Amino acid sequence: MSETKTALWKCEECNFLNCEEFALCQACFIEPDTTARNDVVHVDGKIVPTSVKLASGTIFHQDLPPYRSGYTQPEWTKTSINDDGTTTTTTAAAAAEEKDAEAEEYSYDSKWDDIFDRDYFDAQRLNEVERYLHEIMQQRILFLDGGMGTTIQQFKFNEEDFRGDRFKEHAKPLKGDNDLLVLTRPDAIRQIHVDYLKAGSDIIETNTFNATSISQSDYDLQAHVREINVVATKLAKEACELVMEQEKQQGLPLKRRFVAGAIGPTNKTLSISPSVEDPGYRDITWNDVVEAYREQIEALMDGGVDILMIETIFDTLNAKAAIYAVLDVFEARKVRLPVFISGTIVDQSGRTLSGQTTEAFYAAIRHVRPFAVGLNCALGAKDMFKFLQRLSVTAECYILAYPNAGLPNEMGEYDQPPVEFAQEVSIFAEHSLINLVGGCCGTSTNYIAELSKIMASYAPRPLPRYQRDKHRVMKLCGLEPLNVTKSLGFVNVGERCNIAGSARFRKLIKDNDFTSAVAVALKQVESGAQVLDINVDDGLVDGVKAMQKFVQLISAEPEIARIPFMIDSSKFEIIKVGLQCFQGKSLVNSISLKVGETEFKRHAKEILKYGAGVVVMAFDEQGQAATKAEKIRICQRAYDILCHPRHGVNFPPEDIIFDPNILTICTGIAEHNQYGLDFIRATKQIRALCPYAHISGGLSNLSFAFRGVNKLRGAMHSVFLYYAITNGMDFGIVDAGGIPLFDDLESDLREMCVDAILNRDTDNIVERLLSKCEAIKAEGKGESVAKKLDEWRTLPVAKRLAHALIKGIDKYIDEDVEEARAQKENYPLVLNVIEGPLMDGMNIVGDRFGAGKMFLPQVIKSARVMKKAVKYLLPFLEADKAAAREAGGGGDEAEEKRNKTVVLATVKGDVHDIGKNIVGVVLGCNNFRVVDLGVMCECATILDAAIKERADIVGLSGLITPSLDEMVFVAQEMEKREEFHKIPLLIGGATTSKKHAAVKICPAFPSGFCMRVLDASRAVTVCQALVAEDQAQKDEFVDEVEEEYEEIHDEYFSNEKMDKVYVDYATAKKQKYVIDEFASEAALALYRAPVPNIGSGRANVKVFKSYPLKELIPFVDWNPFFQVFQLRGTYPNRNYPKLFKDPNVGQTAKETFDDAQKMLNEWMKDKTVEARGVVGFFKCNSNEEDDIEIYDDDDSHIATLHGLRQQQQQQTPSVELQKFMCLSDFVAPKNAHKVRDYIGLFVVSAGFGITELCADLKENKTDDYSALLAQALADRLGEAFAEKMHFDARREFWGYEPMENEALSATDLHKIKYQGIRPAPGYPSQPDPTEQAIIWNLLNVDDNIGVSLTEHFAMSPAASVSGLYIHHNDAQYFQLNEIERDQVVSYHKRKRVNDQDVNNTQKWLKSYLAYNPDAKK
Length: 1417
Description:
By secondary structure, the chain is of the alpha/beta class. Strand 15, helix 14 and strand 16 form a beta-alpha-beta unit. Helix 28 crosses helix 31. The longest helix is centred in the middle third of the chain and has 31 residues, at 856-886.
């Protein structure tokens, strides 16, 4: 029999590739595609003509000749069976004409190209101010003003200045209400505006940052909000007119000035609960915030502002409320102003306080079509740069930036000089990142003057050129962005948080068990959901309340809130509530034309104000679309209404998702069998007719006829998606993680499902499926499925408690604390459980929060779990107390110990209290009685409360710089009253520092004790030390702190400096070693690091047990072995193997070597010694702090390797020419293109069994020689294992080394002739051994191979080696040499964020310090 090949045929409708004997898709009329695949081989002598009758009544005839070059299509005919039984035959050509005619019915309208291809700044949509700004901002960079608050502080206004005559009798203190000064000191505010304008500002902001009823309620001035905004605007306008008139009189060219109405974030947050016990609680509503903003916006516009500036956004949901109010006012007044929006990235994590990334922030506010968007506050220019880069790449509009004058110093002051500030900001312009620039905290008129000088020569950032495929992209977000591009593929919308889609979720919501409902949402995300569908529609559920509570709860869960939500309801009021609770860009599911065009348009316009995308169901006034034609007609009509300008909605087409209705098939009603195929065919047409729109569907509907048979339903869903996705379905509401892969389905089940989906075998398919159901049910009978606990539930109870605290899981907390309580041998008292494993977990939380590895919502979750644990233990604490009393009165003492009182307060003039609240909760969890006085607390109020509540400790909190002065005042008042001399004063807050406390606050309270506490995780330790019953212990703690603070105080004022032969750390960083491929963003865009062959991340860590010693022998470097025995030859016989020829030591060396070989052979034979290893590769990037950030395979940041940089000057012609190296220089830096590098980590050991062997040799066999030989041999094997692992990494596991290095010998390897380097913590390039802990954590070394670290970071067992793999060909080993104090302090802060004692860093680097750390400063 001869082999013949046939062409494989592909269906144009469903793209089904059919390799059956007839090569025929039986669902659709097809044309042959001979290029699709040509590898289908039929072993047959001939191919005979065939005919196939379809279930639809169509007969296909085909004649497939053997495939050969020059193959021509055989003639096709299509025969249809008529109603009377006769047949009609149509040729292929005629059938094609019919198909073309059908296509014309749904032809694409080119009008959409003209509508959608308009420029972002379309002249037709711009008003006069926008046109002017658009024109001038393409010519030059415009200048904003500086920090209004900073400038006001320079006037040193007192309470009387703030009150003026008008508010002399006002009941509340008014100092600090800067906005009020427009009424009480308008002369000063006007002059500030004038000074900024003369310094170069093109745009000045009104003094209205806190001029909302919400913020002014702290001063009881809500009734004056409108007046403040109107007057503030008029003062700014007067200043502009005055300066322009003066310039006109001086004959200067006309330079228009503009007034931007400053709209601040308020002192409330819609995304974060103020109560750590209840993450779903909010102390203000969306409507309250919108109304407050609406009042301010209307007043600003009435006053005559040119621009609206929504700024300093730390919670994007607040900003969305402001945007909603803006759009509402614009719509009502039928006028639009330019809208500027500025967010605040709070730290190097690149996120807002509420957790959003820069890109997600922009996606969430993009719907207002901002004229300019940017960043301000929190960071200096240097730290803001990388985030501004990301925003500049993302945004279609103009970019603005107004950073702080660097970061506040230890005194809470901004001391960066204007020239330095301007130079750092100029880097933005050098990289073409900005169009508008100004200053925030710490900047005044001289900063703007310097900016205008230095920036005059720079060109503005060019607007991105409109690219249809780039700009017409759906950009969703939660805490992180989700751009729905073609490369993203199918978007899984998790369905299990839908009452209609999950019986369990429905029961949980009805039972008010929202904690378990949140766990359902988390499971969906962990299973792969990229969007989370939320539906609480049920007749017995209050949908508005349930939606609000659930969305607010899951918004507090960072792992859930990182993805976008789909707010799903048939009731529009429930949809609105859901949108009002989530800061990301959501989707609405759904609206439709069944309510009529008028209501349809109203719903769409309302959704636009929230910035959400929308699912449009294929319903109209006549009902649900069932057939292909109906689906296409309704979707096309809805698209026209939403997108065509004549209808006045102007919905972005990329934000529309059509749901053409996935209907139930195989119900027993014949016409239903076509529903699946009609959806698939309609999908393709809708995508063609409605450009940029998307297609979704609720997949569970498809198989509803077979509910309860999950195996069959999953298979049907898999097959349906296989065809639907090919034809354009890119969203789907599915059980994320619950759908099997098409190729993994059993062949008979897959074929049956294909027949069902494509409506083949319509007469028999229902019976076939029912039979399959019975077979599946039979398979499951008698089987018991054991419920698997999460892996962490198998850990010891102490570790389970720590895990629960770190992850914020309270599901098992009661049973776990009960288990711990029952372990009396470990925890004799209930208090031991709290002070032991629970506080251990909370300390980890504090460390991670300080290191930027946990965000505020996660910390709040942890505190909530802690409180729940303590609440469970309270009755048992009481029992312990009673028992102690019965035993002899100890109960009262125990009660006193457990109920020490701490009075907490945010000082006068400051309304920030989130950090204080966390401290209060954590202290409460540790049995302190906490009296929280709230915010804006007068000194007298604090002191009176301390006396009344018999306080043991007073704690002051503040976030803003003026709070530092208020803290000094409180300390002074405490000093005046003797009853406070024994009450410790603790301070905390973002602007506080140890140095400021030592220099300013402590000297104001010399008779008492004062200390700055870094954060909540340290508050417990400090407070417990200060109320300790052991007076000696307490005194020791106080003396230690006071001695440290005295040194800080003396150093600050003496300002002693050691002689240096080193450059300062900033200079060393500036002159770092730069690899060409990393030298610019352009270069980085082209850089591609070699990707490890075995994969990257924790999931792909490779572990070796009982590694064959034989494979290590070729990699042994024997020279150090002989050095152990002091066997050193002389030239030319110095090294192995020539050493054996040395006349003095050669013979002994040979005998020792032979003994080692004999011992090695014994080990290989009887497995006396075991070698183990672990290696892993991780994505990484260096950052600006000389560290290497490590990412898991999903790009989540999981660790940081800290670097040290050379500072010692070398003998070069000029210090400016010297390059100061750090290991981070050899890794690709973080960049706007998100190009990742890779790094390897490893730990190997040949020491398992050595300790026991050597003990036996020495103790039982008194053979010290063999013991020493064994140790030396094991050490060599350990190093050889490191070489072997590195060799395999370069060639196999990672595979980056060029093949020309294939022939390298072991000697070459020992001489480092390979590509890249293998540095290790504790060695000259990075001499800090504590970095080992990071390797241990990432590779899970203790559990994987049993190698542990001692308290001094030595490895156990001996003969162990660890290190890093850095692959770049330009990477090189170097000596760090000595480093200066400035770098050590920086390194200490980066590495031990929550540890105030730099000695804890200095002790590990002692031999590398260029100064005496023990000398008095």
